[in-house]
Amino acid sequence: MISKVKGKMLNLNLTAEWEQFISHGRVKSDIIRPEILESWQRCYEAGVDPYDGSSHLILTQPELEQLQSNHAELIETAWHFMVKLYEFVAGSGFIVLLSEEHGYIVKSVGDCNILDNATDVKLMTGTGWMETEVGTNGIGTALLLKKPVQVSGQEHYCKKLHSWTCSAAPIFDNDGQIMGALQMSGPSGAAHLHTLGMVVAAVEAISSQIRIGEKNLELTALNSSLQNIFQTMSDGAVIIDRQGIISHINPVAEQILGYNLKGTSIEYLLGKTAQYDKLLSEGQPFTDIEVRVDKPQFQFHCLVTSIPIKDEKDNTTGAVIFFNPINKIKKLTNRFSGAHAVFNFNDIIGNSHKLHSAIHSASNAAACASNVLIAGESGTGK
Fold it and tell me: Taking a C-beta distance cutoff of 8 angstroms, is the pair 81, 147 a contact?
């Protein structure tokens, strides 16, 4: 009973201060909160009609649809939280509204009878709720102050809104720019600080979801770029996981190895060595290790380099391994040093088994970085 009497006395005092301000542009006491008084002063100086309170900024249907399309990501992200927020207060006379960054309402949900009442002051989708249009209010004042605000009863600058309470908070993007505002509105008698807390919590969830969405887009674009580089680079490359299993292989590596070894252990490909063990166990890279493999399925002779892949805790989760064929290096060396072979093995004519065996041995020797001694009697074609 005492709290009701105090509430009634506060409303009477607020009404007296509001009438004093409307008439003279100033208040007599300090019961008006500073942010509300500053808003009243802005409205007074802007010439806002204190006896109005209805929005006259009403979008046409095509304009509203265009605005909703421009803010589709915000609406899609916020809608789930708006519905959840409304479920907490359903049947208590509240509506939940979402505005874009300028103050135009783009989405709403709430009790049907309250939505009808809100229509009387044009508190509905497609209307503008800036301070300069409807005076002190949740959406317009929160967007201007860039912080959460609750405006109840006679704190509204315009008399038509004195029967309302509004709790609103701005929504920011990753760059700190305002994307819009979320507001809960209902009868002024139901005003409670918990309402503003619920709105702030919902806005935090919306902002967090937006940040996650933006990060996912960035990661998708980065992954696409890295995938393009991986697929088009001139060196052979494979990616292995923490168990040493090949998870990705690029076209050049397939060409070097002869076929796709995805799903195969790197040990099967290159053998078990200390370098590979340290690569995965300690995250220690290695550079230009000469590797020669001669298996029935594939043969290659390459310089192999590796770079470990690490997570945010510096744990090794895999590695990228690059293959650079020795013959490619030799060709580049000869190209820039001016050394060019007059003949190559394809120029040798003959089909005998011994000749093919000699060419095979010579090809293997030519691929080595070591010096080669060719022995034989004069006239044998050394």
Answer: no
End-to-end CA distance of the chain: 116
Beta bridge partners of residue 180, listed in sequence order: 100, 171
Please give the full DSSP string across 50-89, using - where no structure is assigned: TT------B--HHHHHHHHHHTHHHHHHHHHHHHHHHHHH
State the fold for domain 33-217.
Answer: Beta-Lactamase (3.30.450)
Per domain, the residue ranges of the chain are 1-32, 33-217, 235-331
Model confidence over 260-313: pLDDT tens digits? 778 888 888 777 777 878 888 888 999 888 888 777 777 778 888 999 999 888
Do residues 235 and 323 make contact, with C-beta atoms less than 8 angstroms apart? yes
Quick count: other Cβ atoms within 10 Å of Cβ 343?
Answer: 7
Q: Cα separations (Å) of 110 from 60, 98, 150, 234, 300?
A: 22, 12, 19, 60, 70
pLDDT in tens, 152-205: 999 999 999 999 999 999 999 888 999 999 999 998 887 677 889 999 999 999
Average pLDDT, the chain: 85
- Alpha-helix runs per DSSP H in the chain: 2-24, 34-46, 61-70, 72-89, 112-120, 131-134, 138-145, 193-232, 251-257, 266-270, 274-281, 326-337, 353-366
Report the phi/psi class of residue 279: left, alpha or beta, with left for phi > 0 and alpha for psi in -120 to 50. alpha
Phi and psi at residue 79, to the nearest 5°:
-55, -45
Q: Residues 232-252: pLDDT tens digits?
A: 888 889 999 989 899 999 998
Q: Which pLDDT tens digit goes with each residue over 212-228?
A: 887 888 888 888 888 88
Please state, in angstroms and rounded to a whole number, the distance separating the CA atoms of residues 298 and 200.
63
Which residues lie below 8 Å from residue 237, measured CB to CB, with a gap of 6+?
230, 249, 250, 252, 253, 320, 321, 322, 323
Written out in words, the top-level CATH class of the domain with range 235-331 is: alpha beta
